[in-house]
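cron nightly-structures :: item 1 of 1
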Amino acid sequence: MSELHKFLFDGVPVRGMIVRLTDAWVEILKRRRADDAATPWPWPVMEMLGEMAAAGVLMQSNIKFNGALVMQIFGEGPVKVAVAEVQQDLSLRVTAKVVGEVASDAHLQDLVNVNGRGRCAITLDPKERMPGQQAYQGVVPLNASAGQGQPDLADVLEHYMRQSEQLDTRLVLAANDSVAAGLLIQRLPAGGEGNIAKGEMDMDEQMEHFNRIALLTKSLSGDELLELDVETILRRLFWQEKILRFDAQTPRFACTCSRDRVAGMIRGLGQEEADSIVAERGEIDVTCDFCGQHYRFDAVDAAQVFAPPGDQPPATSTVQ
């Protein structure tokens, strides 16, 4: 079962969380393979999406927000856009649009940042928007990295969190065809939440503690993150630290698509465009990019979409 564990370092202004997506990740991949209209993602794309899913869960669980956290990576390369969406209850879904060939050894730079213009956008979309309220969005270049050489997704997101939250962060991410996992360590703001040592701790002391724990965190390899259970990882890395644990949470796969949402999309096309599609193809057939669900609207269904409220007979077609 997929699991998320949050913890604090006793007496030190540092928090952490670790996620292992197992059944949730397998379900996402299974639906992709079962969708007749889609092909399995190439291995590098699958790995990137798994890391995005794990990172999205970590970031969503790190904020107090009633809505969806949407991570999008877009730019120039065979991956035109990749999306991971995580709701407040840690239900998640991912997808990517891939055009052209993907090399078996492709990295983030090759997939979406060929000309250095790739971007990662993090959007916080409120579940219930107030009048005039807009979704918050932060954007960071994919070549933003504190390290040297080609940045990976962890580098990019560490940079994003330093810029957006002004908090030092370390991330380890990994994914294969059965597990998507991540470990996040973050320095708490002075006087903020968490179990901080009694008495004031100056910035030098805070950074000394954070750097020590961050160094331990970065010693964890991707293979270890995928193969070892949570208890083993925490014991191996932080056996000299006193850790305060919280109850585990259970991320899961869930898609927010629905027939009503698809009808709204068709309504947005306009009746003339919708009628022309029905005339040409006999129906409007929409497949959800996230879960592979098919929604079919024949001529009667399409007419219902544009009928005035209260003047709509029962639908003639069903979801398949």
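cron nightly-structures :: done
Residues 16 and 185 are 4 Å apart (CA to CA).
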